[in-house]
Amino acid sequence: MKSRKFSIAARLKSFKHASRGLAFLFREEHNSWIHLAIAVILIPVCILLHLSLQEWCLIVLCIGIVFALELINSAIERLADQVSPGHDKNIGIIKDMAAGAVLIGSIAAAATGLIILLPKFFLLIHP
Fold first, then answer.
1. What own/partner pairs with CB < 8 Å and gap ≥ 24 does 87-91 have?
2. Of 39, 61, 68, 96, whose CB has the highest number of CB atoms within 10 Å?
3. What is the pLDDT of residue 3?
4. d(CA 70, CA 13)
5. Phi-psi label, residue 87: left if phi above 0, alpha if psi -120 to 50, beta otherwise
6. What structural domains does the chain harbor?
7. Are 32 and 72 in contact (CB under 8 A)?
8. What is the value of pTM for the model shown?
9. CA dist list (Å): 125 to 3, 52, 67, 94
10. Sign of the dihedral through C-alpha 99, 105, 110, 111
11. pLDDT single digits (tens) 63-112
């Protein structure tokens, strides 16, 4: 690969490409809407519950990981469909494994959220 000089214009262009990928995700991938809805509901709840800096870091990290996994899963699915438009058992397994990664990340994020938020809810109910 040819080495190129650093260019601010090229870096800005890479952000444009990444933004198009995110826009595609939210426009075309319905599961991303579920993740987005949860994040939109979760953030005000976290503000109201006065999370610590460390708790905020974990919540933000979990949200970011789930979206990153959703992007990777979507990219793998589109690439697999392009490479093998017909039914292929191995492509199906690859797509299932990518979806499984999103599921594991989502479960871990939900568990992290519950570990952080449930004690705070209990304190509101029983101070």
1. none
2. 39
3. 72
4. 23
5. beta
6. 51-127 (1.10.287.3610)
7. no
8. 0.88
9. 60, 20, 32, 45
10. positive
11. 999 999 999 999 999 999 999 988 899 999 999 999 999 999 999 999 99
